[in-house]
Specification:
There is one protein chain. By secondary structure, the protein is α/β, with parallel strands linked by helices. The chain has one domain (64-355): 4-Layer Sandwich (Purple Acid Phosphatase, chain A, domain 2). Helices cover 41% and strands 14% of the residues. The chain is built from ten helices and eleven strands. The protein has helices spanning 4-44, 86-107, 127-140, 155-158, 166-176, 205-224, 270-273, 286-296, 356-377, 384-397; strands at 68-73, 111-114, 148-151, 182-186, 189-193, 247-249, 300-303, 310-314, 318-322, 335-341, 346-352. Strands 4-5-6-7-9-8 form a six-stranded mixed beta sheet, covered by helices on one side. A five-stranded mixed beta sheet has the order 3-2-1-10-11, with no helix packed on it. Helix 1 packs across helix 2 and helix 1 (4-44) runs antiparallel to helix 9 (356-377). It is elongated and about 110 Å long. 34% of the residues are buried.
């Protein structure tokens, strides 16, 4: 009969194995929690709201409460049922959801703009697939009542102009309450939302309706910016808006030849920069771009579509910021724009999300360390001489 002492001795190897297994589980869990959850807090915590340049010269009415904190992102491209692999969907949607929810919690913006291409397959989606995509989007980009979410339309949501139909446009507008030529005014700041796919200029039904709304809105804004003592019959019956120069939001960029002049770590790669842009496909046509500039004389233009960053000055004074894609499927270093905006000024700052290559590097390093720990535990890391000597001794004993 075995004594209690001998039983405890025999149980020691089992306890050591369980202890080692528990340590491995804790190590793997820690790596997963950091790479899939905590890393978003670590990275986004470093982003700070920019100071408005004219803040020091604000009057009594333009206090800190009048600064609108806006987040601008673009091209989320939620994968659909046709081209989207389930693992790719799971990975990309988790990344965007964690990034967005972390940014909301840490930065607490007043408003968030998504500049189109919300879905990857909206132009093809059946009613059932569309409903599923919308459900997933609403879960990923859920937000508190204190933060407003404004979504613009992109070519992947309703198709390029030749694919665009009234049904697809209405389907998008019903879900996101979006119409081309819609004005949003917050804290005295005017934002003009444009359906850039409808700026084809060929007189199609959707195009005519969109342009008519933009022209009417342009008239209201121009009348609102006239001095109080300026009398005009054309403006006598117009409901006045805040006199702030508008900010233009759209999916397609205004016309530019290429991304050759764009710079920065998230600009287009060198092999793509000099490829000429195709009008009405990569960028708006020159005619449509001129119309928008004439109609609204914006102080800032924000666009997406190219998946890369770019800053352009139109007419030598009007900046346009092309916002990179928010999805890791489109780039290794996604980002979003943080804007501090007042009726008379604005300041923008880019906030980068975790680089996917760095996340993979962490996983590879953790995997290598895990392998070393396993080899050490099973005593397979002994010097070659002693390992060979042990094999010889076993052979002689046999």
């Amino acid at each position: 009969m075995l004594s209690s002492g001998s039983t405890a001795v025999k149980n020691q190897p089992l306890k050591k194995r369980l202890c080692f297994l528990l340590k491995l589980v804790c190590f793997v869990s820690s790596v997963l929690i950091f790479c899939e959850f905590l890393i978003y807090y670590v990275v986004i915590f470093q982003c700070q709201w920019p100071e408005v340049k004219g803040r020091a010269h604000m009057g009594e009415k333009e206090t800190s409460t009048s600064v609108l904190k806006a987040i601008i992102l673009a091209d989320t491209h939620l994968l659909g049922e046709i081209k989207g692999h389930w693992l790719d969907k799971l990975r990309r949607e988790w990344q965007m959801e964690r990034s967005f929810q972390t940014a909301l919690w840490l930065l607490q913006p007043d408003i968030v703009f998504i500049l189109g291409d919300v879905f990857d397959e909206g132009k093809w989606s059946s009613p059932q697939a569309w409903a599923d995509d919308v459900r997933r989007f609403q879960k990923m980009f859920s937000h508190p009542v204190s933060t407003e979410l404004v979504v613009l339309v992109g070519n992947h949501d309703i198709g390029f102009h030749y694919e665009m139909t009234t049904y697809k446009v209405n389907r998008f507008e019903k879900i996101f309450n979006f119409t081309s030529g819609k004005l949003i005014t917050r804290k005295g700041i005017n934002f003009v939302l444009v359906n850039s796919i409808a700026m084809e200029g060929d007189g199609c039904a959707v195009c005519r309706a969109a342009e008519a709304k933009l022209v009417a809105l342009s008239h209201r804004l121009n009348c609102s910016q006239q001095p109080p003592d300026h009398s005009s019959k054309r403006c006598s019956d117009v409901e006045k808006l805040p006199a702030s120069e508008p900010i233009l939001l759209q999916h397609y960029p205004l016309y530019r030849k290429s991304d050759a002049e764009c710079s920065g770590e998230d600009a287009a790669p060198p092999e793509e920069k000099n490829i000429p842009f195709k009008e009405k496909y990569d960028v708006l046509s020159q005619e449509a771009s001129q119309k928008l500039m004439w109609w609204f004389r914006p102080r800032l233009v924000l666009s997406g579509h190219t998946h890369s960053a770019c800053e352009v000055l139109h007419a030598g004074k009007i900046p346009e910021i092309s916002v990179p894609s928010f999805s890791w499927r489109n780039r290794n270093n996604p980002s979003f724009i943080m804007g501090s905006i007042t009726p008379t000024d604005f300041s923008l700052q880019k906030c980068f999300l975790p680089y996917e290559s760095r996340v993979f590097t962490l996983y590879w390093a953790a995997g290598a360390l895990l392998g070393i720990l396993l080899l050490a535990h099973f005593q397979l890391l002994t010097p070659p001489f002693y390992f060979a000597q042990r094999l010889i001794s076993k052979h002689k004993a046999a």
